[in-house]
Write a structure and sequence with these properties.
Structural class: alpha+beta
CATH topology of the largest domain: de novo design (two linked rop proteins)
Order of helices and strands: EEEEEHHHEEEHH
Largest sheet: 5 strands, mixed, barrel
Number of strands: 8
Strand content: 25-35%
Strand order of the largest sheet: 1-2-3-5-4
CATH class of the largest domain: Mainly Alpha
Number of helices: 5
């Protein structure tokens, strides 16, 4: 329905448009993913200031017309996540997280838990930019898969239900597999398996740092799960 819209959002991406405008990709608490135009926002004296840059959490006043592209009429900062903007690794990590949300949740269907997870993710790396990196990227994406109903089976063999002798990960089967069912899987060592389990069940702020080798298989498991079951190719974790 056309008319004014108020919502809270995270700016996933900001694209220059025309001489002074921006096209914004937003993830909102109650309207899922949407796009909006902020007219005149790149002018030096714009009333929006810098509030519509990527990663800002904002309260927005929007106007919805006949187009799928809404118009921003007002913006109030909830959190700028300023500390992460001073760290190159934190910026890269935040960008990958926002990109994953954009790809996995690309409709207007609301998922408040995804919005809250994204805000937590940004807040964690803003509070301590040293946490930015592959481990939190993998954990965040794994939690997004859980929110999408696509989390891999990690507690037992995805094919036969065995809980012992887990040796691989089979994206087509939907999770870890035992030695008797390993056809079509790639190797998953014990440390990588343990990290996936911990990453899925541990708050992002409490995530332990795994061995670098464990991240290789864990990253592949998340990437290929998204590709096989959501038909989404996520950008590789840094």
């Amino acid at each position: 329905m056309a008319g004014p819209v108020k919502t809270e959002a995270v700016v996933l991406r900001s694209i220059r448009y025309g001489e002074a405008d921006r096209i914004l990709h937003l993830y909102t608490v109650d309207r899922g993913r949407l796009s909006a135009i902020a007219k005149g926002s790149r002018r030096a004296r714009s009333r929006f200031g810098g509030r519509l840059e990527p990663f800002f959490r904002v309260k927005l006043d929007l106007h919805e017309g006949r187009s799928e592209l809404l118009t921003v009429t007002g913006a109030e900062t909830v959190s700028p996540y300023a500390s992460l903007r001073a760290d190159a690794d934190a910026i890269a990590t935040a960008a990958l997280g926002c990109d994953a949300v954009s790809r996995l949740f690309d409709s207007s269907e609301p998922h408040p838990e995804v919005f809250n997870l994204l805000c937590t993710f940004l807040a964690v790396i803003d509070e301590d930019p040293k946490l930015a990196g592959p481990a939190i990227q993998v954990a965040f994406r794994l939690k997004l898969l859980l929110a999408a109903g696509l989390a891999p089976q990690l507690s037992q063999c995805a094919r036969c239900g065995a809980t012992e002798d887990i040796v691989g990960f089979a994206p087509a089967a939907g999770g870890v597999v035992c030695s008797a069912c390993e056809a079509g899987s790639f190797p998953l060592d014990e440390e990588s398996h343990r990290f996936l389990v911990v990453a899925l069940g541990t708050p992002l702020a409490e995530l332990p740092e795994p061995e670098p080798a464990a991240l290789v298989a864990a990253t592949r498991a998340v990437q290929e799960t998204a590709e096989h079951h959501a038909h989404v190719r996520l950008r590789p974790a840094a």
